[in-house]
């Protein structure tokens, strides 16, 4: 199986630097155009011939997957395992609001349980379940996974890659040799 991880297109909350978490925020006009452009690239590049699209059930990812589907003409399936992390009481707040309200200089200082966030161990386990399911059902296929920045970062970590923040509508191509041991 080949897995290409793509982050959803831009939302207004991305522009405002608001924590989205599991809030159902739609793509903005720029986000729609970003996904149209990357879809055209996938369509016109023989290297990217996908068998299907797996998407997070959140609106911004589903919209992105739907736009890709219009170009690529391949089936879409939702997978809750690849939904964004819950950020609890921090959702809807900007980074500056969080720093001011909770007296933090570094957002990484957040104690998950204090703010009702989904802990990273649970996120990693959820993703691992999804990867195992994909591995079992998509052998020999090339899959486009449309998801969220923190989920892509966690998948990359599970396959031994350390990546920074991935931009809206950017993608990470995981070659089979890179992740075979991590999900088999």
| Residue-averaged pLDDT | 90
Secondary structural class: alpha/beta
Q: From N to C, what is the helix and strand string? A: EHHEHEHHEHEH
Question: How much is the radius of gyration in Å?
Answer: 16 Å
Number of helices: 7
Sheet with the most strands: spatial strand order: 3-2-4-1-5
Distance between the termini: 11 Å
Shape: globular
Q: Helicity, in percent?
A: 40-55%
Largest sheet: 5 strands, mixed
Uncertain runs: 180-184
Q: Indicate the multimeric state.
A: single chain
How many E strands?
5
Structure report:
The protein has helices spanning 12-15, 29-44, 59-72, 95-101, 120-137, 149-158, 176-183; strands at residues 2-7, 52-55, 76-78, 142-147, 171-174. With 184 residues, it is α/β, with parallel strands linked by helices. It has a five-stranded mixed β-sheet with strand order 3-2-4-1-5, sandwiched between helices. The protein is globular.
């Amino acid at each position: 199986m080949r897995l290409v991880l793509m982050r959803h297109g831009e939302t207004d909350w991305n522009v405002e630097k608001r924590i989205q978490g599991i809030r159902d925020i739609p793509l903005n006009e720029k986000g729609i155009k970003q996904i149209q452009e990357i879809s055209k690239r996938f369509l016109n590049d023989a290297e990217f011939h996908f068998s299907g699209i797996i998407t997070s059930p959140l609106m911004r990812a589903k919209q992105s997957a739907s736009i890709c589907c219009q170009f690529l003409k391949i089936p879409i399936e939702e997978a809750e395992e690849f939904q964004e992390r819950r950020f609890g009481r921090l959702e809807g707040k900007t980074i500056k609001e969080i720093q001011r309200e909770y007296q933090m200089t570094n957002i990484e200082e957040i104690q998950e349980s204090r703010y009702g966030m989904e802990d990273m161990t649970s996120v990693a386990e959820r993703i691992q379940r999804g990867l195992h399911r994909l591995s079992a059902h998509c052998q020999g296929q090339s899959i486009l996974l449309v998801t969220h920045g923190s989920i892509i970062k966690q998948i990359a970590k599970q396959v031994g890659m350390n990546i920074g923040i991935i931009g809206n509508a950017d993608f990470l191509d995981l070659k089979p040799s890179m992740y075979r041991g991590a999900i088999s």
